[in-house]
């Protein structure tokens, strides 16, 4: 029993998203009952069309039902009883919803692109549902309009792991379009540096385009970078050679963040460093410890690639050690697997996004969208942003581009309707 528990629960739940898995389970029923693989033997075309129509109708009914369960959960949130909502009982890991989700319409939208109801051999998948949830989120944000703040993770969201936003990145015209509409943009990354130059190296294509554009300067200043999860704030500045100006911490720290003690920060990083050193030794990792002012990590020796298992083991062990420590209960931290490194940062992206909202004079969670690639419950750093705003979970930069196109398309539809 113990072994089974460890394998099925303790060791695997962090690799699953309960809400997505639950919806996937619901969708499996119409798939099994209505998506007949035998239709390929049927001579008449109508039977396939009929099957598709029935499957789609059933999928849509489920989407509508889930949409209503979420509305009920939101009503419970408002009454302070969301622990007792029906959805919470069905999906205990479910958190806070800052907006309703237009799941019915989002399914139709994605069905037209991914042909989910037409499929007879492949059931609605994790990725289908992840993308439906993203579409449902942006539909609801855009329809309630305007979307005031979009925050982006860096690696894997805006550029491939360890790469940069080059001048020909398809991200640039899309982010420019958002800025032109007056939307605020925050890049909320774990990458933690005190010098603007390091961020310029990663984002030069975007920063130079904003600099050279004829956007009014108040719009240009709507671009900010939050580094080290929630530690270093920079704002766009044409006058600086690196196009960024450091914003002193005392001017933007939220009241709760002001309570974080320097002595606790040192204690937590010392403890994390010990845990990381242990993993380095035990797993014979070919890497070294990198200690910074507000972070500590293991980075590989040049040219070396750590295996996924070693990265995950390191994160989970370190996280557990910190979680049960006294200092880990006083101070927010984020231990995550960066693809080929492991870092423990002081603070997390919920604080990073909240600080961005505060910097722009208090933007509401329901008007903010965070786009990122790391949403598993352990070892992932975008996950915490769910506490501060609505989110979209992308798998690579191409999906970020598609998401931004969806926002622009939906925005156009809403504008035409209002005209
Ligand atoms: P993100 O995906 O934009 O959040 O960036 C995460 C990556 O930034 C990590 O995988 C590291 O390679 C890099 N990085 C550089 N400095 C730091 C730091 O101080 N903390 C965490 N990650 C860092
Ligand atoms: Mg990332």
TrEMBL record:
It is an enzyme of class 3 (hydrolase). It catalyses: IMP + H2O = inosine + phosphate. GO terms for biological process: inosine salvage; nicotinamide riboside biosynthetic process; nicotinic acid riboside biosynthetic process; nucleotide metabolic process. Its cofactor is Mg(2+). The keyword Cell membrane does not apply. InterPro entries: HAD-like_sf (IPR036412), ISN1 (IPR009453). The keyword Magnesium applies. It holds the Pfam family ISN1. IMP-specific 5'-nucleotidase involved in IMP (inositol monophosphate) degradation. Homotetramer. Belongs to the ISN1 family. This is IMP-specific 5'-nucleotidase 1. It comes from Tothia fuscella.
């Amino acid at each position: 029993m113990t072994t089974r528990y460890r394998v099925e629960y303790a060791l695997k739940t962090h690799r699953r998203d309960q809400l997505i898995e639950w919806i996937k389970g619901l969708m499996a029923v119409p798939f099994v009952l209505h998506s007949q693989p035998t239709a390929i033997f049927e001579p008449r075309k109508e039977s396939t069309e009929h099957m598709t129509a029935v499957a789609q109708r059933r999928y849509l009914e489920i989407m509508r039902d889930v949409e209503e369960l979420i509305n009920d959960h939101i009503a419970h949130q408002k009454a302070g009883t969301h622990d007792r909502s029906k959805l919470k009982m069905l999906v205990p890991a479910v958190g806070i919803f800052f907006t309703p989700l237009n799941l019915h319409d989002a399914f139709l939208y994605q069905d037209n692109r991914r042909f989910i109801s037409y499929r007879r051999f492949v059931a609605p998948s994790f990725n289908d549902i992840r993308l439906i949830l993203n579409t449902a989120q942006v539909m609801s944000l855009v329809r309630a309009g305007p979307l005031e703040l979009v925050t982006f993770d860096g690696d894997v969201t805006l550029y491939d792991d360890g790469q940069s936003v080059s001048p020909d990145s398809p991200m640039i015209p899309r982010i420019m379009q958002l800025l032109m509409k007056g939307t605020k943009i925050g890049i909320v990354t774990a990458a933690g540096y005190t010098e603007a130059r390091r961020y310029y190296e990663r984002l030069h294509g975007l920063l130079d385009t904003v600099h050279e554009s004829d956007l009014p300067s108040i719009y240009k200043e709507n671009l900010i970078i939050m580094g080290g999860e929630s530690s270093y704030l920079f704002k766009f500045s044409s006058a600086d050679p690196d196009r960024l100006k450091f914003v002193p911490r005392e001017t933007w720290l939220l009241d709760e963040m002001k309570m974080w003690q320097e002595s606790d920060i040192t204690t937590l990083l010392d403890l994390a460093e010990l845990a990381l050193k242990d993993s380095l030794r035990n797993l014979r990792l070919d890497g070294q410890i990198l200690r910074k002012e507000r972070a500590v990590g293991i980075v590989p020796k040049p040219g070396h690639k750590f295996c996924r298992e070693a990265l995950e083991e390191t994160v989970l062990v370190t996280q557990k050690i910190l979680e049960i420590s006294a200092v880990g209960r006083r101070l927010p931290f984020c231990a995550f697997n960066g693809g080929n490194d492991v870092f423990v940062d002081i603070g997390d992206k919920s604080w990073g996004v909240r600080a961005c909202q505060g910097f722009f004079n208090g933007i509401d969670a329901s008007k903010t969208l965070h786009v990122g690639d790391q949403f598993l419950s352990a070892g992932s750093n975008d996950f915490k942003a769910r506490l501060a705003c609505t989110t979209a979970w992308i798998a690579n930069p191409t999906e970020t581009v598609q998401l931004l196109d969806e926002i622009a398309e939906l925005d156009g539809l809403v504008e035409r309707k209002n005209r």
